[in-house]
Amino acid sequence: MANRPRKRLFIGLLFALEAAVVLVLLLLWLIPSLGHRYFGPGFSGFMGWAMGILLILVTLGIVTLVGIIAYGREVPGARNLRGVLIRFFLPVITALGTFLGISKDDVRRSFVEINNELVRSGSFKAPPKRILVLMPHCIQRDDCPHRITVNVRNCRQCGRCDFSKLTEIAEKLGVEMTVATGGTLARRVIVETRPELIVAVACERDLSSGIVETYPIPVIGVLIDRPEGPCFNTRVNVQKVQDALEAFLLPEQTVNEREKPAAL
Where residue 84 falls among pLDDT bands split at 50, 70, 90? Predict the structure, then answer.
């Protein structure tokens, strides 16, 4: 069973990153302060202002992120903050965590959970046909004779793996579900289907990289469990997948209004 994602791990590393930034900026301020003849007397003042502004921006971003996670509500600029988190903070925080002896999977697991909170707080909604469910092939039993890597409808719903319930849920809700055997295929499916929202099921590495690559499309990630090892007969919490889908779905009345043809 996978460890429960710890949002506070990523947040703690963000504050550790801020402390590192403070030290670096302090050093950059002290160097010209101790050597005016090389940098000029005004340079230390400039560095002091630059340090203060950058520190305020970093602190404001972290505090906003913590507030969104704590209260579950989006604030102005939060969607841009998700972009900063994905494009900048994730690689830096992963490197910082490795330096501090924290495994990459632990950092990625925490990142996925924070990303999910940001997406949920944004109240993203779409009709079923504009929502894509991406599943890993390893959820299917290795000895199953009915391969579903091309078409999930090949599933016979025998109940031996989680695809039985997942395909039933996808059909009931009317969402598109596909199996991605790798990152290249997943990207091709996304380009072809052009979804507005994605629910992705995968391991820590694939989820974190997939969230980065598909940005700005909102993605809710659901981590798999690996009772028999990586990429082999994995499992997923089906209820979490269903909850994510239901949180994304527009009310039926709104869907019908969106699908009405425009008046001539």
Answer: confident
- Give domain limits for the chain: 7-120, 124-259
- Which residues, including other chains, have CB under 8 Å from residue 139's CB and lie 6 or more apart? 161, 162, 163, 166, 201, 224, 234, 235, 236
Task: Determine the pLDDT at residue 26.
Answer: 74
SS3 state at 66: helix
pTM listed for this prediction: 0.78
Q: What is the distance between the alpha carbons of residues 151 and 154, in angstroms, rounded to a whole number?
A: 6
Whole-angstrom distance, CA of residue 117 vs CA of residue 119: 5
Contact 175, 245 (CB under 8 A): yes
CATH class for the region spanning 124-259: alpha beta
> Any bridge partners for residue 230, and if so which?
none
DSSP for 73-119 reads ---TTHHHHHHHIIIIIHHHHHHHHHHTT--HHHHHHHHHHHHHHHH
Tokens of 236: 């997923």
Amino acid at 56: I
CA distance 257 to 13: 45
Q: Is the pLDDT of residue 23 over 60?
A: yes
- Evaluate if residue 3 carries a pLDDT over 80: no
* DSSP letter string, 136-198: EGGGS-TT-SS--SS-GGG----SSSTHHHHHHHHHHHT-EEEEESSHHHHHHHHHHH--SEE
Specify the 3-state DSSP secondary structure of 17: helix
